[in-house]
Amino acid sequence: MKRKFLFSFFETPQGKLLQVQENKYLARSITVSCKQTVLQIGSLGWENTFIDCSLYKRYSIVDVKGKGCNEAVKIRANPFKLPIQTESVDLVLVPHLIEFDLNRFQTMREIERVLKPGGDVVIICFNPLNIYVRMQSVWNKKMSDSWHSYFISRGRMSDWLKILNFEIKTTSEFTIDSIITTPDRFKIGKRTFLSMAFGVKAVKRQYTLIPLTPVKAQPTRLITAAMGVKSTIHRTNDD
User: Is residue 213, in this structure, part of any structural domain at all?
Assistant: First the structure.
């Protein structure tokens, strides 16, 4: 998994503007209390710009190199094999990791496993349809053979979340000067190509299966109309 492109991209003028928009989005997406558990998968190095790690005692960062803000709890591990207890996390942040992860679907399964029922996941990815992002990736690849990226489309990300029983709450499009957030699924429009990155916020749903047992047939206790009339006539004649 190589993320060199991520950090080199944010050194460009457009990347620095995009970084500001994404930090605002992440700060707004963290709605849990300081006592709840927050997990970030993949360090950025500028976590202090969107969260005060000193206030969140249960803020942890999973990174293969053990990097992240000093106040956070750092866990050196692979994202596709999280050493975290099942259903123990309230919020998972995944900023620009899925598109660089060779085992990304297994990582998505791990996210679903560690999240509590009703917990949220926030994912940010580069937009593969943006021309500037594509040009930067080609140039970066030409300069460094060690870089590999596996861009993921917005539609595929939505499909994966649905397969894992996530319900999409909001979707966002990031440009260098704005954030467009809409409820539910992505809307196709000009921002599909203009946005340099997209974000998804989804909630984990857990459905309880109700077993279907065969219903025993009850004997019918019905009196036909003819029998009722006949009984009434006999009683009248006896009187």
Answer: no
Residue whose structure tokens are 């009187």: 239
What's the pTM?
Answer: 0.81
Residue 72: domain span: 4-208
CB neighbours (10 Å) of residue 239?
A: 5
- pLDDT (tens digit, 9 = 90+) per residue, 209-224? 666 666 566 665 555 5
Q: Residue 84 corresponds to which tokens in the numbers above?
A: 């975290």
Give the C-alpha separation, 116 to 228, whole Å.
Answer: 62
Kindly report the CATH number assigned to the domain that includes residue 31.
Answer: 3.40.50.150
Question: 174: closest CA among 160, 151, 154, 202?
Answer: 154
Segment (H or E) for 5: helix 4-9
Residue with tokens 């849990």: 32
In a domain, 231, yes or no: no
Q: Is residue 232 part of a domain?
A: no
Three-point CA angle 38, 42, 44, nearest 5°: 95
User: Cα–Cα distance between 203 and 26 in angstroms, integer?
Assistant: 16
